[in-house]
Specification:
Blueprint (H helix, E strand, L loop, with lengths): L11 E5 L11 H9 L2 E4 L2 H10 L6 E3 L5 H13 L4 E4 L11 H10 L3 E5 L4 H9 L6 E6 L6 H9 L4 E6 L4 H12 L3 E6 L7 E6 H10 L6 E5 L3 H12 L4
Parallel strand pairs: 1-4, 1-5, 2-3, 2-4, 6-7
Antiparallel strand pairs: 7-10, 8-9, 8-10
Helix pairs in contact: 3-4, 6-7, 7-8
């Protein structure tokens, strides 16, 4: 017998992971939730509409994105309070990771509503496992600040012993790679673009290697940068830890 509870349940917010490119990268459970909830809050209703049509789902959608999130949240909480079931989805991947779903999730929890994650695709984890770098300990940074605190954050990353995962746009990829190279020194790095899509590519090597590659091949698409941690600092820390106490 299955110990699964019936779902979707009224008054519950489902955080549903959706494909990051390939339409097949969605779970059976996610499809059922999207089909059966009362309402889907979508970061981009056009993108979500394409996904829903592809899978023959006709559930009502409503826009929920960074410029209307504070206006939408009270209404969505009212829906939950009235006993409706809601799903929140981002453009792609896992909602709440570098997108506005985080505010809705926090508000639902604060309001005493049940929040259930529906696991699925994640660009950060996909790039990490394709990098060949240390996977058991990592630091996810999302997008670096564009201006304020950018150099401070990069300086902090120079001391990080864990593998570092960053998101970056095509317009700032080269700038970010060069800034990381200057601050962190030559390290192993893996840059993945268009994960699960037609032109998927992962470039591995030193900062100099990947910079040279993208200088010769103009970068296109969306990128995940995975950087080796500061092994020298990590080795020093481990050595100090092994010294007997006085």
């Amino acid at each position: 017998m299955s110990d699964e509870r019936p779902e979707p349940r009224g008054g519950t917010l489902y955080v549903v992971s959706t494909p990051i490119g390939n339409m097949e990268d969605i779970t059976l459970r996610a499809l059922r939730i999207l089909r059966e909830v009362d309402l889907i809050a979508a970061e981009d209703t056009r993108t979500t509409g394409n996904l829903l049509r592809h899978h023959g789902i006709a559930t009502q959608t409503i826009s929920y994105y960074s410029h209307n999130e504070r206006q939408r949240i009270p209404m969505l909480l009212e829906r939950l309070a009235a006993g409706q079931s809601l799903a929140v989805v981002s453009d792609a991947g896992t909602p709440g990771v570098s997108d506005p779903a985080a505010l809705l999730i926090a508000a639902a929890i604060e309001g005493g509503r049940e929040v259930i994650p529906i696991p699925g695709a994640s660009a950060a984890l996909a790039a990490l496992v394709a990098s060949g770098l240390q996977m058991d300990r990592f630091r996810f940074e999302g997008f670096l600040p564009i201006k304020k605190r950018r150099q401070t954050r990069i300086a902090e990353l120079a001391q990080e012993t864990r593998t570092i995962i960053l998101y970056e746009s095509v317009h700032r990829l080269m700038k970010t790679l060069r800034e990381l190279q200057a601050a962190l020194g030559e390290r192993r790095v893996s840059v993945s673009r268009e994960i699960t899509k037609k032109f998927e590519e992962t470039v591995r090597g030193s900062f100099a290697d990947v910079i040279e590659h993208f200088e010769a091949h103009a970068p296109k698409g969306e990128f995940v940068i995975v950087v080796e941690g500061n092994e020298k600092r990590g080795a020093t820390g481990e050595s100090d830890a092994e010294q007997p106490a006085d």
